[in-house]
Amino acid sequence: MIPYKLVALDMDGTLLNEEQKISPENRKWIHRAIEHGVPVMFATGRGVQSVEPYVEEL
After folding, report:
1. Is 12 a catalytic residue?
2. Dihedral sign of CA atoms 33, 35, 38, 41 in order
3. Catalytic residue among 4, 8, 10, 50
4. Does pTM surpass 0.85?
């Protein structure tokens, strides 16, 4: 297995579903990465204020 150093997630159309929500499956894998010490970041053209609610959700 590759030892991941960072997970960068695109938001619109990738991480977020059509309802602009993080699916339970995506949430599970994000939490698993964090639990294993892998930093998770959002790669997006959105402003910081529109990303903060998703960061707080996780």
Report:
1. no
2. positive
3. 10
4. no
The domain ranges of the chain are 7-57
Closest alpha carbon to 37 in 11, 3, 8: 3
Kindly report each contact of residues 38-41 with a partner whose C-beta sits within 8 Å and lies 24 or more positions away, as own/partner.
38/4, 38/5, 38/6, 38/7, 39/5, 39/6, 39/7, 40/6, 40/7, 40/9, 41/6, 41/7, 41/8, 41/9
Computed over every residue of the chain, the mean pLDDT equals 91
Q: Is 16 left (phi over 0), alpha (psi -120 to 50) or beta?
A: beta
pLDDT band at 1 (very low <50, low <70, confident <90, very high): low
